[in-house]
């Protein structure tokens, strides 16, 4: 069974239970439109499939093959592009990664719920419950810690350890690796959630002696119609995997020892910065504290940081003029080949051929492409 099949089946049954004859369905993160086709099969009168990736190009062809092309509108873009005239009776959105706190998942649902869901409408995903536990796994430890401690070349790579121990990983972890109790970290209720950031303290207690290599986070999804699924260790593998946050180093724990972890997810731009501050309470040993963050895994120089503060004054660059010219000519009337010829004239020697200039202008236009 493929990694996504169980999820598809649960979502399909939830979709079936939510649809009423002739209703309007909004499918966010539609891919090529599989759930949109099912929505039509279950009786939807209109489906709006929204997907920013190029996979949606397959949608129209597949819709014709499934006999529902007349009821589905495919839009390459994001739901924020849609106007309030769209009022959906059912909204389906699965924009998760290893956890639901992933890219623009929460802001997208909040926006769609507030603007595009008709009164009395149904969100397919009702709630996600985030859970976490301590894990001990020598294979994970080997990949995380040891490459920076020793190598066959006899070179000192220890400076890379800081990057490794602050880097999140998507893994598939078996239940045997979990050696603490499981604790609920947060519940995301999509009927009421507004803040994409989550922070809380969890206390995890070792149920057997083992070295703690990191924290594992997963979610249990609660769908409409009594459906749901989980990507917990021990459940059938899901495409999402598990989120692993390593500790600064392995920590030997005895049964009954505990760890207090302040765990935070903060949306910065289009991705989440994750922080985990850990305090280990071990019988007969001094407390051990770590303070970690995915921000510490970035390769950032002092110059990079200076360019991010409010007092920094950006300096003019040649390409800025080219970008300004392109943007001024994206007027709904001027074709790209005309803009490309103008770029060649404005910047002699910058482009080897007009095709290079065309590629430059097209790449900039793609960033601002209109939904289609």
Q: What is the name of the CATH class of the largest domain?
A: Mainly Beta
- Can you tell me the CATH superfamily of the largest domain? Hnrnp arginine n-methyltransferase1
Number of helices: 10
Element string (H = helix, E = strand): HEHEHEEHEEHHEEEEEEEEEHHHH
- Could you name the ranges where pLDDT drops below 50 across 5 or more consecutive residues? none
The first-to-last residue Cα distance is 34 Å
Main sheet record? 6 strands, antiparallel
Counted up, domains total 3
CATH architecture of the largest domain, please?
Distorted Sandwich
Please characterize this protein's 3D structure.
This protein has 372 residues and is of the alpha/beta class. The protein has 3 domains: 5-94, Vaccinia Virus protein VP39 (Rossmann fold, 3-Layer(aba) Sandwich); 127-300, Hnrnp arginine n-methyltransferase1, CATH 2.70.160.11; 318-367, no CATH class. The protein has helices spanning 5-18, 34-41, 59-65, 105-115, 138-144, 161-164, 302-306, 318-329, 336-346, 354-367; strands at 24-28, 46-51, 72-76, 88-93, 117-123, 125-135, 169-171, 183-189, 198-205, 210-223, 228-230, 242-253, 258-268, 271-281, 288-293. Strands 6, 7, 8, 10, 11 and 12 form a 6-stranded antiparallel β-sheet that branches. Helix 4 links the parallel strand 4 and strand 5. Helix 9 (336-346) crosses helix 10 (354-367). It is globular, with a radius of gyration of 25 Å. The model has no long low-confidence stretch (mean pLDDT 92).
């Amino acid at each position: 069974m493929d990694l996504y099949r169980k999820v598809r089946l649960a979502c399909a049954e939830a979709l079936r239970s939510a649809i009423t004859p002739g209703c309007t369905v909004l499918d966010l993160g539609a891919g090529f439109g599989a759930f949109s086709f099912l929505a039509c099969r279950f009786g939807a009168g209109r489906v709006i499939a929204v997907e920013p990736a190029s996979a949606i190009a397959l949608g129209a062809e597949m819709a014709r093959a499934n006999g529902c092309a007349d009821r589905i509108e495919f839009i390459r873009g994001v739901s924020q592009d849609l106007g309030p005239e769209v009022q959906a009776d059912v909204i389906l959105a699965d924009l998760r990664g290893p956890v639901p706190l992933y890219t623009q998942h929460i802001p997208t649902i909040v926006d769609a719920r507030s603007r595009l869901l008709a009164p009395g409408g149904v969100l397919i995903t009702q709630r996600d419950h985030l859970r976490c536990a301590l894990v001990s796994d020598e294979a994970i430890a080997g990949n995380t810690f040891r490459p920076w401690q020793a190598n066959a070349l006899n070179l000192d790579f220890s400076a890379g350890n800081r990057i490794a121990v602050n880097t999140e990983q998507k893994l598939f972890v078996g239940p045997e690796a979990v050696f603490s109790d499981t604790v609920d970290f947060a519940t995301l209720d999509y009927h009421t959630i507004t803040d994409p950031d989550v922070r809380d303290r969890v206390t995890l207690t070792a149920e057997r002696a083992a070295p703690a290599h990191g924290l594992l986070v997963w979610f249990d999804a609660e769908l409409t119609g009594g459906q749901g699924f989980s990507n917990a260790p021990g459940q059938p593998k899901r495409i999402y995997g598990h989120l692993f946050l390593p500790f600064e180093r392995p920590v030997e724990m005895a049964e009954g020892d505990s760890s207090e972890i302040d765990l935070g997810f903060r949306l910065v731009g289009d991705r989440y910065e994750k922080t985990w501050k850990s305090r280990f309470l071990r019988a007969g040993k001094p407390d051990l504290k770590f303070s970690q963050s995915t921000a510490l895994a970035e390769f950032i120089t002092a110059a990079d940081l200076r360019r991010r503060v409010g007092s920094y004054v950006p300096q003019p660059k040649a390409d800025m003029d080219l970008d300004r010219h392109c943007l001024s000519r994206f007027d709904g009337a001027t074709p790209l080949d005309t803009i490309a010829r103008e770029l060649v004239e404005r910047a002699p020697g910058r482009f080897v051929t007009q095709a290079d200039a065309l590629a430059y202008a097209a790449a900039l236009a793609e960033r601002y492409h209109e939904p289609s």
